[in-house]
Structure formats: C-alpha cells, structure tokens
Amino acid sequence: MSFAPVLHSEWLKIRTLRSLVVGLGAVVLVTAAFSALAALDDDGGGGADFDPLFTAFFGVSFGQIAAITFGAQAVSSEFQGGALRVSLTAVPHRGRWFAAKMTAVGAPALAAGLLTGCVSLAVGKALLGDRGSGVSWAEGLRAVVGCGIYLALMALFAAGLTALLRSGVTTLSILIPFLLLVSFVVGDMSGNVADLLPDRAGQVVLHETWGGLLGPWAGLAVTALWTSAVLLAGSWSVRRRDA
C-alpha cells in the first residue's frame, strides 16, 4: 500500500475521534484565554522588562498542554484493544505507517497552531492597546509562524514519546509536570543551560527581545532536534517491538 492511502486512513481516525477534534480546538481557546488574561494584567505594563509580544502569546505556555494531549491521545489509541495490530495488518510496512501517523498528527497541529497564533496576536494587541503599539508587523508575523511550528513540534514530541512508552497516560504524566514546573525550576537554577530545553528554546520565537543562548529560529531548531530524536525512538519502538 502506498503512502497516500495510509495517510488518508490515519487522518480519518483523527477526524472521527471527537476527543482529538476537541483537543485541537482547546489549543486555540486555552491559549487565547490565558493570553487575554495576561494582556489585561496591568502589572509591569510600563516596566523595563515588559515584553508586549510575549504577553500576547503568554497563553502558549498553557495551550501547549492541549497540544501535547492531542499528540499523545492520537497515538495512545493505537495501543488500546489491539488497534495497532489491526493497523499493521493493513499496513505491514511499519515505517510507512508510523510516518503517516506522525503526518496526520503534525499537519492539523500546525494548522491549529497557526490559527492559535493569529487569534492570540489579535486578542493580545486589542487588549494591550497602546502598550502593544510597539510590536511591528514583522515581529507579529514571526511570532504567529513560530507559534504554529512550536505547537506542532510539541504535539509530535508527545506523539513520539507515546509511541516509545506505549502509554498516553505515562507520556502526559511526564510532560505536563515538566512543562508547568520542572522546566521553570531548572531554568532558575541552571542559567543558560535551560535555554536548550525543548519548551524554553522553542518559545524564544514568541519574544520581542531575547538575551539567552538562542535566537528565535535557532530556538525552534533546537526544539525540532528534540522532537526528531523522540520520533526516531518512537519509530524504533514500533519497528522492533510486538504490536
């Protein structure tokens, strides 16, 4: 079976699972909601460290939880009730199936991420008012595109880790505390080394200014390297372990 029909079948699985569609919608809604709350907060509005661009995209720190949940659920469903065995019976070439599954996860996550970026920027600038007037068109475009790529990478990161661990619950039990707590603690204690963590590196693109080791696109490249490593590990697991 060629790649196109395999991709079509995997896309149908995602499109027909309501929880996955809701998860993609949650990426947009959660991010926009927390970005709006950040924009409405006047604290630090005139401070030297105030970053209007990141304030508009502040909700990405929370919206990414919905993105990784989407990625983990999309793959974990294959390990329930022997679904993976059925999938591999239809598509014996495991590498082709895995590539189709990751494409079916990454493409809608990218689309949802780009929409999230547009909504966050519009909501943030509207609520920031004069405080957001310094954000240029180029900076806004860079952040919107970066937001889409970052959220897609995080969804794929979770998908690859789920394929490796064969459990969406385990994946989320690792990633959610890491993104919400551990990354910030490590960042405060380790200085610039934390700039190389996948979430902190990728979110540099959402800042108007930056002073760490990485710039916006270099940061996304680091996140892409993390994601690629996890996807390779997930692919190895699917190829080598019993369904």
Describe this structure in words.
The protein has helices at 3-16, 18-40, 52-56, 60-76, 83-90, 94-128, 137-165, 168-190, 198-202, 216-240. It is mainly alpha-helical. The chain starts with a helix and ends with a helix. The protein contains ten helices and no strands. Helix content is 76%, strand content 0%. The longest helix has 35 residues, at 94-128. Helix 1 (3-16) crosses helix 6 (94-128).
Using the CA coordinates, give the radius of gyration: 19 Å
How far is the N terminus from the C terminus? Answer: 19 Å
Instruction: Give the helix/strand class.
Output: mainly alpha
User: What fraction of residues sit in β-strands?
Assistant: under 5%
Number of strands: 0
Proportion of residues in helical segments: over 70%
Which residue ranges are poorly predicted, with pLDDT under 50 across at least 5 consecutive positions?
none
> Kindly state the mean pLDDT as a whole number?
90
Tally of individual helices:
10
Major sheet: size, sense and barrel closure? Answer: none
Question: Notable features of this structure?
Answer:
single chain; 243 residues; mainly alpha; 76% helix
What's the layout of helices and strands?
Layout: H1 3-16, H2 18-40, H3 52-56, H4 60-76, H5 83-90, H6 94-128, H7 137-165, H8 168-190, H9 198-202, H10 216-240
Briefly say what this structure is.
With 243 residues, the protein is mainly α. The chain has helices at 3-16, 18-40, 52-56, 60-76, 83-90, 94-128, 137-165, 168-190, 198-202, 216-240.
